[in-house]
Amino acid sequence: MLIKNINELIGQTPLIELQMPVPNHSRILAKLEMFNPGGSIKDRLGQYLISDAWQRKIINSETTIIEPTAGNTGIGLALAAQQYHLSTILVVPEKFSVEKQQLMLALGASIVHTPSEKGIKGAIAKAKQLARETDNSYLPMQFENPANPEAYYQTLAPEIVSDLANTKISAVVAGAGSGGTFAGMAKYFNEYDSNIQTIVVEPEGSILNGGKAHAHQTEGIGVEFIPPFFENVRIDQTFTISDQQAFQQVRYAAQHLGLLIGSSSGAALAASLETAKFLPPYSTIVTVFPDSSERYLSTNIYNL
Ligand code: PMP
């Protein structure tokens, strides 16, 4: 395959049928988003946000992109911004993995840290302040921008449908951080076939199931406020997965499937196994593995 630009490799990731015991003889298929060039599902978003703003003439070659991010969106944005020679400032709560921050810097972005205890809300407030203070800046604001779910509605969901040709899908399971992935997928699959259950995954310490917000080690998912994208989206079930459960699946995937997945993927796998318990036998469950464990090796991902 001859390509001219690394961004050509965004999307069209493999969908793997996991060779593992699943309750009720069902099967779990996972979209391997680690195969995007920046290593995560958020390359799709970075590319979509920047090209959308460029086409709408909201940004020009002098614009500074500013965004609050847990990391992967920052990498995706830095990758996309490089194509247009834009400078990028990423506002990251200190707690997020050092590997992701190194990659953002390597791609040419600058990082501004906010205190871990202020969470993503602290990063959002800081990014808004920086945007007010910086001439010709653009804040894509993944947490509010309808282009976020749209990116997944346009790319990820239809890829899955075409990967599976005429296979009947019983449920789609996806984690929520900004909520963009789940909202885009849920909208697409509800339109495609209203019998498909759309199931969201969060870690303990996230508030979707009515729990109290607190720190967790599963990285990339978990919400401190209900994503605005969830307003018109059908949620059939919300699974709240503990760090222990998520990390157990991360280790299982490495040891038995040769899959080096991040903790949000582990949570998605744990929730998919739970989903199989209440679906009829021989169901097909589709989930998303957003990134790889390689960007969490400095954390205790393999020895919680
Ligand atoms: N997993 C990982 C590793 C992520 O970085 C993100 C994005 N924060 C997600 C899952 C959740 O995606 P979304 O923001 O679309 O809900």
From TrEMBL:
InterPro entries: Cys_Synth/Cystath_Beta-Synth (IPR050214), P-phosphate_BS (IPR001216), TrpB-like_PALP (IPR001926), TrpB-like_PALP_sf (IPR036052)
Gene3D superfamilies with a match to the protein in the record: 3.40.50.1100
Taxonomic superkingdom: Bacteria
Domain (Tryptophan synthase beta chain-like PALP) ranges: 7-291
Cofactor(s) the protein requires to work: pyridoxal 5'-phosphate
Signal peptide (residue range): none
CDD domains: CBS_like (cd01561)
Record keywords, A-Z: Pyridoxal phosphate
Annotated protein name in UniProt: Cysteine synthase family protein
Species for this entry: Leuconostoc holzapfelii
Source lineage: Bacteria, Bacillati, Bacillota, Bacilli, Lactobacillales
